[in-house]
Amino acid sequence: MALFEKKKAAPPVPAEKLPKHIGFIMDGNGRWAKKRGMPRPFGHIEGGKVYRKIMLYCQDIGIKYVSFYVFSTENWSRAQEEIKGIMQMMRMYLDDAQKHLDDGVRFIFLGDLSPYPEDIRTRMRKLEKDTERNTDINVLMAVNYGGRAEIAKSARELAELVKQGMLNPEDITEQSVADHLYTAGLPDVDLVIRPSGELRLSNFLIWQCAYAEYYFTNILWPDFTPEELDKALIDYAGRGRRFGGAE
Ligand code: IPE
Ligand code: IPE
Ligand code: MG
User: Fold this and answer.
1) 62 within 8 A of 18, measured Cβ to Cβ
2) For ligand 1, is residue 28 a contact (CB within 6 Å)?
């Protein structure tokens, strides 16, 4: 045993009551900055720090899959300045993650990476490859991600297989659609957490959240804390998930 082995935080509920997969819609950065009379990118910088803190806390308490909504297919409609700021942040976090390859975190990027600058795409693919054997926690980063676009992508790929005579339309199942999503082989989301007071999914993992539980809070993402996550986990542990069955 290492002399100074890192002490793990205890989860607020028994391990078997924890969700396997948590999805975070990291919303409210802009309003957080505005409240302080600061430009929106300032909120994204604070939000980035919170992402890292929450990710490490999830790892500590034994969550195996955690998704973060970083940038949606609809977010391109924002001002160039803001988009540039977000790209700069991505570079920073990609470089930082590259320095922590031995920390047990596996990174997977969900979304259409093609519109990103080449250097960002290369860093993302490299990080995925360099962490593919890590098993402590899987961190799914939804970047240029849209749930509808993802389902359309799956349909396109299946149609291509049909065209090539490799698949019969009658053999298309829920499983085959899932196998062509960005999350192929990964578990569905159990718990979605959305701060900022908005009560919507905003196109986040819509297929994978079909039976998820939801936790909404008015706290803005830059103010989100491990204590707030504990509250969500306690709430989740008390929910009765039935998946269409009856008690
Ligand atoms: C979420 O915060 C981050 C991104 C969408 C990139 P917002 O930037 O949407 O913050 P609000 O909702 O305007 O406060
Ligand atoms: C969702 O937040 C996208 C991310 C957090 C990356 P938005 O701020 O874009 O969602 P809407 O516009 O309020 O639905
Ligand atoms: Mg928002």
Assistant:
1) yes
2) yes
Q: Measured in angstroms, how far is the CA atom of residue 27 from the centroid of ligand 2?
A: 6
Compute, in angstroms, the gap from residue 166 CA to the centroid of ligand 1: 43
Mean pLDDT, range 130-140, rounded to an integer: 98
Inter-axis angle of helices 226-237 and 40-61, to 10 degrees? 60
Q: Ligand 2 test: best mutation among 50, 70, 75, most atoms within 8 Å of CB?
A: 75
Query: Is 27 an active-site residue?
Result: yes
Q: What is the mean pLDDT of residues 159-169?
A: 98
Considering the entire predicted model, what is its pTM? 0.96
Domains of the chain with CATH codes: 17-147+186-237 (3.40.1180.10)
CA distances in angstroms from 110 to 97, 113, 142, 171, listed in the order given? 17, 8, 5, 26
For β-strands 213-216 and 105-110, DSSP reports them as unpaired
pLDDT band with cut points at 50, 70 and 90 for residue 247: confident
Distance 177 CA to ligand 2 centre (A): 25
Residue 43 has pLDDT above 70, yes or no: yes
Q: What is the full DSSP assignment across 26-42? A: ---HHHHHHHTT--HHH
Evaluate if residue 6 carries a pLDDT over 80: no
**Ligand 1 atom nearest to CA at 28:** 14
Contact 235, 216 (CB under 8 A): no
Instruction: Write out the two tokens for 110.
Output: 């969900």
Widest distance between CA atoms in the chain: 60
Is 230 annotated as catalytic?
Answer: no
